[in-house]
Write a structure and sequence with these properties.
With about 190 residues, the chain is an alpha/beta fold. It contains five helices and six strands. Strands 1, 2, 3, 4, 5 and 6 form a six-stranded parallel beta sheet that branches. The radius of gyration is 16 Å and the shape is globular. About 35% of the residues are buried. Bound molecules: ligand FNR. The site of ligand FNR has 14 residues, from helix 1. Ligand FNR binds next to helix 1.
C-alpha cells in the first residue's frame, strides 16, 4: 500500500467550526493509506516580507509540514466572498522567500462549507486561483461546495442526509484515485 502524506488545512479558527467537523468526517472515512497531518494556522504571525531574513519558528513548522506532504486538503469557509485571512496568510508565508516556495509540485483539493446557499463558492474558486498561481495541481471534479452547512451534521458529527454524505464519500474516493494517478505519472510531491 502506497502511503500518502496529506496535510490538512482547516480554514476556520472558530471553536465550533462546521468546516472542522466536516474535516473530521473526512478523516473518519479516509483510506488507510492516508497519513493526515493538520497544519495549524491560528498562531501564524501575519506575513511581512521583512521576516524573510529571520527564522520564525511557526513559519518553519508550516513550511516543513507542506514540504513533507504529497498533497494538501483545504476544508474552508468563505469570508467576505473570499478566502479566510488565516488561509491566505499561510499561502503567503509558504510561498516565500522568493525561490523557496514549498508548493512546487504539490497537489491539492478544496472543500468549502457555508451556511449560505452558495456553499462558499467564491472562497473555493479564489483559493484554486491562488494555488494554481503557486504551481499546485488542484483536483477540479468533483467540486465540493456544501451549502446550508449548519444542517448537514448532527451532534455526533454524522451527516443528517444521505445525499450529502454520499457526495463527500465520492469526493474522498475520487481524490484518492486522482492522487494515485498524479503520483504514478509525476512522482511523489514530497520535497
Ligand atoms: C462570514 N460568513 C460568510 N459566509 C458566506 O457564505 N459568504 C461570505 O462571504 C461570508 N462572509 C463572512 C465573513 C466573516 C468575517 C465571517 C466571520 C463569516 C459566514 C460563515 O460562512 C460562517 O461564519 C461559517 O460558520 C463559517 O464556517 P465555520 O467557521 O463554521 O467553519
Amino acid at each position: 500500500m502506497q502511503r500518502k502524506h496529506i496535510a490538512l488545512v482547516i480554514g476556520s479558527l472558530r471553536r465550533d467550526s462546521i468546516n472542522r467537523k466536516i474535516a473530521q468526517y473526512i478523516q473518519s472515512i479516509a483510506p488507510a493509506s492516508w497519513v493526515i497531518d493538520e497544519i495549524h494556522i491560528g498562531d501564524l504571525p501575519v506575513y511581512n516580507q521583512d521576516f524573510d531574513a529571520e527564522r520564525i519558528e511557526a513559519y518553519e513548522r508550516v513550511r516543513a509540514q507542506i514540504k513533507q506532504a504529497d498533497a494538501v486538503l483545504f476544508v474552508t469557509p468563505e469570508h467576505n466572498r473570499s478566502i479566510p485571512a488565516a488561509v491566505k496568510n499561510l499561502l503567503d508565508i509558504t510561498s516565500r522567500p522568493v525561490g523557496q516556495s514549498v508548493w512546487t509540485g504539490k497537489r491539492a483539493a478544496v472543500v468549502c462549507a457555508s451556511p449560505s446557499t452558495f456553499g462558499g463558492l467564491s472562497s473555493g474558486l479564489h483559493l484554486r486561483q491562488v494555488l494554481e498561481a503557486l504551481g499546485v495541481q488542484v483536483m477540479i471534479s468533483p467540486e465540493v461546495f456544501l451549502s446550508k452547512a449548519f444542517d448537514l451534521l448532527n451532534e455526533q458529527g454524522d451527516f443528517t442526509n444521505e445525499r450529502s454524505q454520499a457526495f463527500v464519500q465520492k469526493f474522498v474516493v475520487a481524490w484518492d484515485v486522482w492522487l494515485d494517478r498524479q503520483i504514478e505519472s509525476k512522482g511523489s510531491g514530497t520535497q
